[in-house]
Amino acid sequence: MPFGKYKGRKLIHLPEAYLIWFKNKGFPKGKLGLQLADVCEIKSNGLEYLLKPLIKK
Q1: What is the number of domains present in the chain?
Q2: How many whole angstroms separate alpha carbon 55 and alpha carbon 12?
Q3: Residue ranges making up the domain that contains 8
Q4: Is residue 24 part of a domain?
Q5: What span, in angstroms and rounded, lies between the C-alpha atoms of 42 and 54?
Q6: 0.70 cut: is pTM over it?
Q7: DSSP letters along the chain, please?
């Protein structure tokens, strides 16, 4: 996340409540907004496990 309270975190590690807040407020325009919308859908459908193999520790 490039700004705000969660600056520096990977998008997949953002709290679901924060993503839902963004969804209600409106995601930013551009690539970041599309990525946030995708992560919101993934988390709200309980599909985070699909991304775990892609996340470097």
Answers
A1: 1
A2: 9
A3: 1-47
A4: yes
A5: 14
A6: yes
A7: --SSTTTTS-GGGS-HHHHHHHHHH-PPSSHHHHHHHHHHHHHHTT-GGGTGGG---
- Here the tokens at position 47 are 């599909």
pLDDT tier, 54 (very low <50, low <70, confident <90, very high otherwise): confident
C-alpha to C-alpha distance for 15 and 7, rounded to whole angstroms: 13
Summarize pLDDT for 9-52 with one digit per residue, the tens: 999 999 999 999 999 999 999 999 999 999 999 999 999 999 88
* Residue listed under structure tokens 């995708």: 38
Amino acid at residue number 53 = P
